Automatic annotation (TrEMBL):
The protein's role, per its UniProt record: Intramembrane glycolipid transporter that operates in the biosynthetic pathway of dolichol-linked oligosaccharides, the glycan precursors employed in protein asparagine (N)-glycosylation. The sequential addition of sugars to dolichol pyrophosphate produces dolichol-linked oligosaccharides containing fourteen sugars, including two GlcNAcs, nine mannoses and three glucoses. Once assembled, the oligosaccharide is transferred from the lipid to nascent proteins by oligosaccharyltransferases.
GO terms under cellular component: endoplasmic reticulum membrane
Transmembrane segments: 12-31, 43-62, 83-107, 119-141, 153-174, 180-205, 330-354, 374-396, 403-422, 428-449, 469-488, 494-517
Pathway(s) served: Protein modification; protein glycosylation
Source organism superkingdom: Eukaryota
Name this protein carries in UniProt: Protein RFT1 homolog
Family as reported in the entry's similarity comment: Belongs to the RFT1 family.
Keywords tagged on the record: Endoplasmic reticulum, Membrane, Transmembrane, Transmembrane helix
Biological processes per GO annotation: dolichol-linked oligosaccharide biosynthetic process; glycolipid translocation
Classification of source organism: Eukaryota, Metazoa, Chordata, Craniata, Vertebrata
Segment forming the signal sequence: none
Gene source species: Brachypteracias leptosomus
Principal subcellular localisation of the protein: endoplasmic reticulum
Topology relative to the membrane: Multi-pass membrane protein
Cell compartment(s), UniProt: Endoplasmic reticulum membrane
Length: 529
């Protein structure tokens, strides 16, 4: 497949994934706003922090390394061996689910049954849901490798909508069921997700469309584990790369979900405060996750396909190097400007957003300061997503192994800084610790990118340098909206709030117009792709 075709399909995948993330987040936040009026914040804290952490940990440890290894390189490979390797995620998931389930049941603090009923059933259900989702892993990787855009959008949309509909019905009719509600909804979510992939491939394999695309798998039986005579069960090069990524993914999970591990294992916040933190955390990550995560996932595939892993820039095809450098530069500029916009305007509008979303329960206390700090953290997330996406797509096995030691040190530093900063600054300490660790990861990735391109004429890191005039507009907008919040928000009535919103809208419009005038190359990239 030509590099330009890969770029076009990758950007469509990123756009569709971004739209899908919008749906996820909007539905999730609407669901949270709805359930806040029916259920206790302690119950939400257990579901959104404790049980979701169990599910995400099992899934991440069981499949993340396999995904990264099996999506590297060309689609022209021995897919039988790759599929065999991917099926190993299921027994690995069973092991992690049983092991962590026992930890969650017997070593962690058990919530008060009168406040959070049916905790044990919730642990079993969320662990089981992780195993069910792993049954669809070979289908997901095959679809992602061949850039099946619509399949992912339809499957995940149907599953999240089904989950939310069931949750709302059960919350209204049977609020006393407690964790049974979220357990059944979670099991429905993963079941619908896996069935969508299975049904699609049942219909697709053997069809004229599959023959036209020269799809490497001809029948459903080939998507099950298969032994081939006189050949190894798996591709050992992929297996070794998977092991390297596994060691890294274990550490990355600690960094990604570190605050939840600290909350879960060290009990620095009660379940009610955990619920508030999680709601604010989700609200803060609304734009970040529905834009940055799809970009990272999709362009990891792009860079891995266009450039060869572990090879010097001089021996790569120079046309592909030029395209990759240009795309990296423009992606960095895009996410940097999105992150700056969220940071600048998020500071002055955090309290208003929380007041509208959850009332005084969220807008009073530490809620607004939490969201303001998260607005700054979004900027770190923006840059780290793209820089790490490129770095992980190009690292050879030895570099991945060396980076594992960096991740080990970062994990230890993160846990220490989280613990101490939380004692000093309460839940805000989690976000400050995340900023600190994300900054170190960004520095490492920038160092790798600089060394990779230093022997070429390309300098993609210039994407991190916005126009000075645009920076000035950001500063002026931040000052104006900050004064507007002091004078008009948020206890002076709805007319004052409307004035505050109008001021922000005018400053935002001025920023966007300046962006269109000063960052023409990036705007053209966004429009064309």
């Amino acid at each position: 497949m030509a590099s330009q075709d890969v770029l076009g399909q990758t950007t469509r995948l990123a756009s569709s994934s971004a739209a899908l993330q919008v749906l996820f987040r909007v539905v999730t936040f609407g669901l949270n706003a709805f359930t806040l009026r029916y259920l206790s914040r302690e119950l939400l804290g257990v579901v959104n922090v404790r049980l979701t952490l169990l599910y995400s940990t099992v899934v991440f440890l069981a499949r993340e390394a396999f995904r990264r290894a099996c999506l590297s390189g060309s689609t022209k490979r021995n897919w039988t061996k790759t599929i065999n390797l991917l099926w190993l995620t299921v027994p690995l998931g069973v092991f992690w689910s049983v092991f962590l389930g026992l930890v969650w049941l017997h070593l962690l603090e058990v919530p008060d049954p009168s406040v959070v009923p049916h905790y044990q059933a919730g642990v079993v259900a969320f662990g089981l849901s992780a195993i069910i989702e792993l049954l669809g892993e070979p289908f997901w990787v095959l679809a992602q490798a061949h850039l099946f855009v619509r399949l992912k959008v339809v499957a995940e949309s149907l599953s999240v909508v089904s989950k939310c509909i069931l949750t709302v019905i059960l919350v209204v009719l049977y609020p006393q069921w407690g964790l049974y509600i979220f357990s059944l909804a979670q099991l429905l979510y993963v079941s619908v997700l896996v069935m969508c992939y299975v049904i699609y491939f049942v219909m697709f394999l053997g069809s004229p469309e599959a023959a036209k695309k020269s799809f490497p798998v001809a029948r459903m039986k080939a998507l099950l584990p298969n032994l081939v005579e006189d050949e190894t069960f798996v591709n050992w090069k992929e297996a070794r790369l998977t092991w390297s990524f596994f060691k890294q993914s274990f550490l990355k999970q600690i960094l990604t979900e570190g605050e939840r591990y600290v909350m879960t294992f060290l009990n620095v916040l009660n379940f009610g405060d955990q619920g508030i933190y999680d709601i604010v955390n989700n609200l803060g990550s609304l734009v970040a996750r529905f834009i940055f995560l799809p970009i990272e996932e999709s362009f990891y595939v792009f860079f891995a396909k266009v450039l060869e892993r572990g090879k010097n820039v001089k021996v790569q095809r120079q046309g592909d190097v030029a395209m990759a450098a240009n795309v990296l530069e423009l992606l960095l500029k895009l996410v940097l400007l999105i992150g700056l916009t969220i940071t600048v305007f998020g500071y002055a509008y955090s309290q208003l957003a929380l007041d509208i979303y959850g009332g005084s329960m969220l807008s009073s206390g530490t809620g607004p300061d939490l969201l303001r700090c998260y607005s700054l953290y979004v900027l770190f997330l923006a840059i780290n997503g793209v820089t790490e996406c490129f770095t992980f797509a190009l690292m050879c096995k030895e570099e991945v192994d060396r980076y594992n030691f960096v991740m080990l040190a970062l994990s230890f530093m993160f846990l220490c800084t989280s613990y101490f900063l939380t004692h000093w600054y309460s839940s805000i300490g989690f976000i400050l610790a995340n900023c600190f660790n994300m900054g170190i990861r960004i520095a490492h990735s920038i160092h790798y990118i600089y060394n990779y391109f230093k022997e070429s004429t390309y300098r993609p890191l210039t994407g991190l340098l916005p126009s000075p005039f645009l920076v000035l507009v950001y500063i002026i907008s931040g000052v104006i909206t900050g004064f507007s919040e002091v004078f008009f928000c948020c206890d002076k009535g709805w007319m004052a709030r409307l004035v505050h919103i109008t001021v922000g809208a005018l400053c935002f419009a001025a920023t966007i117009i300046t962006m269109f005038c000063t960052e023409t190359k990036m705007i053209h990239f966004v429009r064309s792709q």
